[in-house]
Specification:
heterodimer; A: alpha+beta; 5-stranded mixed barrel; 6 helices; B: alpha+beta; Ribosomal Protein S5, domain 2; 4-stranded antiparallel β-sheet; Exosome complex component RRP40 (chain A); ubl conjugation (chain A); isopeptide bond (chain A); acetylation (chain A)
Chain lengths: 275, 245
C-alpha cells in the first residue's frame, strides 16, 4: 500500500531529471530527462550551485558528449525518445565525453550513413538503379558505383537482384544513396549477391547482436554446416548452404534465435549436430 | 433501468469502484509478428488492439507527402461483436472517421514527426469489446504500439475518461455510466510535462465543475501512465534477457 502511494506520488510529480551516469544499463522510457555529467557537477552539494573558480578555463570542459539513437538534446538536457536500455561508450582516445545511446528493439530500418545493407533492385532508370532497402524511400545506386565499372563496361544487374552495399548519403532530408565500392574503389565483398540462397528478415536488434565481435550463435552455426551468409544492417539476412533443406534449417534457427534462451539454443544445435 | 444510482451514498459506483478508481488494466506489447509495432490492452471489459506500420513510403498519392514532417494516418474500427447488439459498421462511417481524426491529432502531438519527412506512419486501432472509455483504451494501446515500433516519441500519451455525477467527478467511465447521459470528458495527457494532447467533451457541464472533472481525469491518466510504464519496462527486460544481455 505504501509502495503504491509512493509510486503514485512520484508519477504526479512527473519525472525528475536524473543523472545519465546513474541510469546506465537500465530501462529508460520516452519523457524522461537525463542530466549529463557537466550539469550534474553544477547541481552537486554546492547548495547554491556555484562552481569553483579555476584559472585554466579549458580544463573544466570534458569535451563533447555525442547523443546517439534514441536521445535528443532539449535545452541542456537529454530527452529520451525511445524505450530501451541506456548505454554509454567511453571515448577511445582523448577528447570527447563518449557516446550515450538507447539500445532499443525495432523492425523498421532507418537509413544511416556508413551502414552495410542488403537491397533488392526494383527499377532501372537511366544511369541509376532504385534499390529497396526497407526504409521509407528506395535508395539510388549509380551503375558506376561497382568495382571495375566504366561507361562502356556496365555491371550486369537486373531487376530483382540482391545487392550488398553501403550508404554514402543517408539523412532525413535527402533520398538515400548507396554504393558497392569503398573509398579506394575496391569492392570489399560488396556488389551483386549470387544465385540461389534465401533472403529473410529479422529484427534490427538481432542483427546487431549477431554482428557483435564475439557472437556464440554465429560460431555454433558455422560448425553446423558449411555456409555463405550475408548480414544487412536493415534486418535482412541472406544465407546459402549446400542443399535447400540445410538452407531452410539455418534460416529457421536464425529467426528463432530471437525468442530462445542460450540453453534452448544449445539443445537445438546439439540435436541437429547428431542427426 | 429507472432508479439505477451511479454513485451510492457510501461512495460506491455501479461496479463497486470508488469515484476516482480505475478499472483493472492489463496490456501486452509485441502481439503481432508481421507489424512493426503492436499492442493489446484491456481496461476492465474494454479491449483494444493497436497496430503500427512505419515510417514507410507514402501510399497513394505522392502529393500528400509533407516536406518537413511525417504523415500520421490513424484508422479506427470497431468489431461487429464489440457491443451488446451485433452491429455492422461500414468502414468509412462518421464515428470511425471522427475517432481516426482525434487519434491523429493526439499522436501528432507526441510523435517526433520532424525526424521522418516525406514518410508515413500508419496506426490502426480495433476495438474488440466496448464497455466505455473506448477512446482512452485506443490511445493507450496505440502509445504502446508506437513504442514497440521504435518510433521516436516526445513522451507517453495516456488517456482517460471522466464524468460528473451528484457533485462528484468519476474517472474511467464504463458503458453503464456513459449511457446514463451525464457529461463525459475524454482527456489525453503527456504525463511528464502535464501537457494536454487532446481534450474532448460534447455534453453540457457547468464551468464551475470543469476544473474538478479535469483534475480527476488528469489524475487518472497519470495512474494509467504508471501502469503502462511498468508494462513497457517488463517488455524491454524480457526482450533483453532473450538476446542475452
Amino acid at each position: 500500500m505504501a509502495a503504491a502511494a509512493a509510486v503514485v506520488a512520484e508519477s504526479l510529480a512527473g519525472y525528475r531529471a536524473r543523472a545519465a551516469r546513474a541510469v546506465l544499463e537500465q530501462v529508460v522510457l520516452p519523457g524522461e530527462e537525463l542530466l549529463l555529467p557537466e550539469q550534474e557537477d553544477g547541481e552537486g552539494p554546492g547548495g547554491t550551485g556555484e562552481r569553483p573558480l579555476r584559472l585554466n578555463a579549458g580544463a573544466r570542459s570534458r569535451g563533447r558528449v555525442v547523443c546517439g539513437p534514441g536521445l535528443r538534446r532539449c535545452g541542456d538536457r537529454l530527452l529520451v525518445t525511445k524505450c530501451g536500455r541506456l548505454r554509454h561508450k567511453e571515448p577511445g582516445s582523448g577528447s570527447g565525453g563518449g557516446v550515450y545511446w538507447v539500445d532499443s528493439q525495432q523492425k523498421r530500418y532507418v537509413p544511416v550513413k556508413g551502414d552495410h545493407v542488403i537491397g533488392i533492385v526494383t527499377a532501372k532508370s537511366g544511369d541509376i538503379f532504385k534499390v529497396d532497402v526497407g526504409g521509407s524511400e528506395p535508395a539510388s545506386l549509380s551503375y558506376l558505383a561497382f568495382e571495375g565499372a566504366t561507361k562502356r563496361n556496365r555491371p550486369n544487374v537486373q531487376v530483382g537482384d540482391l545487392i550488398y552495399g553501403q550508404f554514402v548519403v543517408a539523412n532525413k532530408d535527402m533520398e538515400p544513396e548507396m554504393v558497392c565500392i569503398d573509398s579506394c574503389g575496391r569492392a570489399c565483398g560488396m556488389g551483386v549477391i549470387g544465385q540461389d540462397g534465401l533472403l529473410f528478415k529479422v529484427t534490427l536488434g538481432l542483427i546487431r547482436r549477431l554482428l557483435a565481435p564475439d557472437c556464440e550463435i554465429l560460431q555454433e552455426v558455422g560448425k553446423l554446416y558449411p555456409l555463405e551468409i550475408v548480414f544487412g544492417m536493415n534486418g535482412r539476412i541472406w544465407v546459402k548452404a549446400k542443399t535447400i533443406q540445410q538452407t531452410l534449417i539455418l534460416a529457421n534457427i536464425l529467426e528463432a534465435c530471437e525468442h530462445m534462451t542460450a540453453d534452448q539454443r544449445k539443445q537445438i544445435f546439439s540435436r541437429l549436430a547428431e542427426s | 433501468m429507472a432508479g439505477l444510482e451511479l454513485l451510492s451514498d457510501q461512495g460506491y459506483r455501479v461496479d463497486g469502484r470508488r469515484a476516482g478508481e480505475l478499472r483493472k488494466i492489463q496490456a501486452r506489447m509485441g502481439v503481432f509478428a508481421q507489424a512493426d509495432g503492436s499492442a493489446y490492452i484491456e481496461q476492465g471489459n474494454t479491449k483494444a488492439l493497436a497496430v503500427v506500420y512505419g515510417p514507410h513510403e507514402i501510399r497513394g498519392s505522392r502529393a500528400r507527402a509533407l516536406p518537413d514532417r511525417a504523415l500520421v494516418n490513424c484508422q479506427y474500427s470497431s468489431a461487429t461483436f464489440s457491443t451488446g447488439e451485433r452491429k455492422r459498421r461500414p468502414h468509412g462511417d462518421r464515428k470511425s472517421c471522427e475517432m481516426g481524426l482525434q487519434l491523429r491529432q493526439t499522436f501528432e502531438a507526441a510523435v517526433l514527426t520532424q525526424l521522418h519527412p516525406r514518410s508515413q506512419i500508419d496506426i490502426y486501432v480495433q476495438v474488440l469489446q466496448a464497455d466505455g472509455g473506448t477512446y482512452a483504451a485506443c490511445v493507450n494501446a496505440a502509445t504502446l504500439a508506437v513504442l514497440d515500433a521504435g518510433i521516436p516519441m516526445r513522451d507517453f500519451v495516456c488517456a482517460c475518461s471522466a464524468g460528473f455525477v451528484d457533485g462528484t467527478a468519476l474517472a474511467d467511465l464504463s458503458h453503464v455510466e456513459e449511457a446514463a447521459g451525464g457529461p463525459q470528458l475524454a482527456l489525453a495527457l503527456l504525463p511528464s510535462s502535464g501537457q494536454i494532447a487532446l481534450l474532448e467533451m460534447d455534453a453540457r457541464l457547468h464551468e464551475d465543475h470543469l476544473e474538478q472533472v479535469l483534475e480527476a481525469a488528469a489524475h487518472a491518466a497519470r495512474d494509467v501512465h504508471t501502469l503502462l510504464d511498468r508494462v513497457v519496462r517488463q517488455h524491454v527486460q524480457e526482450a533483453s534477457i532473450l538476446l542475452g544481455d
